[in-house]
Amino acid sequence: MAEKNARSVPVLMYHHITPSSGQITTSPQNFESQMAALAANGYTSLTAGQFAGYLQGETVPEKSVLITFDDGYLDNYVYAHPVLQKYGMNAVMFLVTDWAGQGELRPVDGSGKPLPACPSHHECKEIVAAGKANDIAVRWSEVQAMEAAGTFEIHCHTHTHTRWDLNFDRAGKCAGIANDLQQSKAALLQELNKNSPHLCWPQGYFDDDYIQAAQALGFSIFYTTDAYGFNVAGGNPQYIYRIAVRNKPGAWLIHRIGIAKNPYWGPLYNRWKKFRKQRRRAREIRRANTA
């Protein structure tokens, strides 16, 4: 009997796994609960290559997900890596390559050694701005160790995580994003001997100029921060939908994935969430205009 192909593949989006509270952060306890729930419910965590094949029409297990992490924070190595290893899960790390430094491996959770500080997202941004990204980002040695263990595979999130559209004219924007992507490709090739077609847009922003610059450098699979759609066989590889995972136990994640995969409730849920987001944004604009 032929294996039943996945109707759609939810792509999960994480940033931080750390005891430090704050935005876009999942606690180590909830992250382990989520990975345990995926394993207990028979989910397969795809590699980036398997996901790319699925988009081109190849078959993957019916209950498949792609687990992704943005930026490359140290806490991904300290806390997420051992949990992924424990449950046999594979994840994708979209790394800001300029943040990755050199140095020895640092301790991970469960090693019995004192763990490095893994601060909140706000603190991480301040530390990066102060030129000390090595304190809060993964090192190349740690990246290599995770790839060797099969817990994380590394792909491009640009070199500097700069929004070139905000402070530059069009010529400056085009030159900036092209150079940023080129430097990231060079770093991944030098440190990991990797030439990847997978690219995650910083802050989810992209436009036609961004896409053209990326395609010129060989990128072809683009990840957004938009949750309101389905990743299906034969779908558009230039617009990968991702679900932002909340700091909740595994039962929540299984429920959320169930909605995302449901051909009836999924579209209704997406339209409702998108409507609420648009209303919230309209209220914010009105408040700003009347302030």
Automatic annotation (TrEMBL):
Q: Which residues form the NodB homology domain?
A: 63-291
Which UniProt keyword terms apply here? Answer: Signal
> What InterPro entries does its record include?
Glyco_hydro/deAcase_b/a-brl, NODB_dom, Polysacch_Deacetylase
Pfam families per record? Polysacc_deac_1
Q: Which domain of life is it from?
A: Bacteria
Q: What is the protein's name according to its record?
A: Polysaccharide deacetylase family protein
Biological source species: Advenella mandrilli
